[in-house]
Amino acid sequence: MIMVTAFSASIGVWRGHRASPLRSIVEVEMQSVYVLPLDSDTLYFEQHPTMAICQSHGKTSGDTLLADWNFSCEKDSAARTMRLKGFCIGRDAEVVVSTIDVGHILRGQRKTALFQQAFRQQQQALERMRRHDQELAYYARTHSAVDAGYNEVMQYAACHHRRLALAERTLRLLEKAIDSKQDAARRTSFKVNGRPVRMDYQRHSIVHLQPFSPQQLPPLASTAFLREVLQPWALAVTPLMIDSAGNRYRITATDSLIRGERFGTDGSYYCGCFNSKLQRSGEGFCMDDALVKYGWWSADRFRGETMLYTPHRIYGIDISRYQHEVRPSISRVKTKKGRVVRQQRVRRVGIDWDALRITHLGGKAQSHVLGEVDYPVSFVFIKCTQGTSIKSAYYAADMAAARKRNIPVAPYHFFSTRQSGAAQAAFFIQHARLSAATLPPMLDVEPSESEIQRMGGEQALFSEMIKWLQAVEQVSGRRPILYVSQSFVDRHMKNAPKPLLNYDVWIARYGEYRPYVKLLFWQLSPYGRVRGIHGDVDINVFNGSKQDFEEWLQAQKN
């Protein structure tokens, strides 16, 4: 403060009266960008600061200031904006500020090498952006405005689509820039307290700014003295931060939670909450090559998307003998020889197909219902066979009853790890009457880890599954659906061969979260209730709108 006071005394009067040194400090906004003319187009680029950070014991601290180049076909997208502190030193509002060399020229081999590197990086970025655009389009097809985070994701999608168009144009300009003989000059503009000013001249790192008027005033203090006084405010800019893994962060707000953005080294993007270790925690959404994930995070682990169930979704059921057989508690019965044996008598019940309405979703799903549950049954899958020896005694009657009421219907097979896929497919085809189905058949795969190991590991399981799927597809003319659990997807599907990944997936995940995988249906609870059916029923939902469902049904007829 002694130095600032001395400086204020040395320059004398500010705006016609004696002013405090703090009132002489002004806000200076500087925007800089390199400009390269290319025929009728222009390429803009500039270095942007990135703060390297270190993390230890839950704390984050600054390390060193790095710089990355940003290229664009639009000036505002490439320009770097810094907010600095300046001093008003003259009667006519002359301002001095300490900053970078504003008149730099980029030319020669250094310019060519920079453009070559940028072109390769832009190609990779553009490929990733196109994949992300496809994932955002998938999200839009399978979600609606009632879903949590829908508006946020759609706003991001609109911005992303525009950035994709800019990136494609920028790539074309970079290709031209590699062979260009033109020099690239840095252009700089300034504003003082929000008003545009012109740069008078620069001496070393001190820039003199004037209002837009013909009058020019000489400096009232030496350049060395100004640089010494202004240096503490020279880099008053909040850059991106980068951690030891290379992920970049832009923190926008900090209260009880930390909110901001993360730009991953793998090209992923996250917007939402963080914990003190800058791990994704709380509500937020992530955009990557696999899937748009909006929901809840815990220490960088995605827990899932919280669902809201409404009458606008498409619901259906899958049934087996358990919807026809009531098993009362086991009783002890005395035989003629005096022995006491345990006995359970099965009571058979029917299904009132004319009364079918879903009245309860069961489990945690019921707590996420908007309004009253009274949904029509829009599709039915009926168990037909299991392994190579078990067939349902109720399948034929149930199939006929569903078809009579125009309910879309198909059979499913419960896969066994004890027989080959080909043998099971033949057994299923023999009993399923596939010509009567109006939907694709389904393969239900629910092996334990020990069963997978006994049959030779996951690759052996995949091989037998593919044999079943291909054999049934060839006979039915429809691509079967694969039913697995979320845990099976997490543990095994990442290692699945490509032919298996071509089949639509039906995921079983019970709880408050939606499955985080591309799917056709998901099973939200095994404890639902349906008017007309005795006992618990599996409740399923189609992953899409009513229009999507109608289009999918129409495709099955062709």
CATH structural fold name of the largest domain = TIM Barrel
Largest sheet: 8 strands, mixed, barrel
Q: What is the name of the CATH superfamily of the largest domain? A: Glycosidases
Q: Helix/strand/pairing class, anyone?
A: alpha+beta
For the terminal residues, how far apart are their CA atoms?
A: 83 Å
**Low-confidence parts, pLDDT < 50 over ≥5 residues?**
1-20, 56-60, 216-220, 233-237
Protein traits:
4 domains, 12 helices, 6-stranded antiparallel beta barrel, 8-stranded mixed β-barrel, 28% helix, 558 residues, alpha+beta
Structural account:
The chain has twelve helices and 31 strands. The protein is an alpha+beta fold. It folds into four domains: 145 residues, no CATH class; 63 residues; 64 residues, no CATH class; 243 residues, TIM Barrel (Alpha-Beta Barrel). Strands 17-23-25-26-27-28-30-31 form an eight-stranded mixed β-barrel. It has a six-stranded antiparallel β-barrel with strand order 1-4-5-9-8-7. Strands 18-21 form a two-stranded antiparallel sheet. β8 and β9 form a beta hairpin.
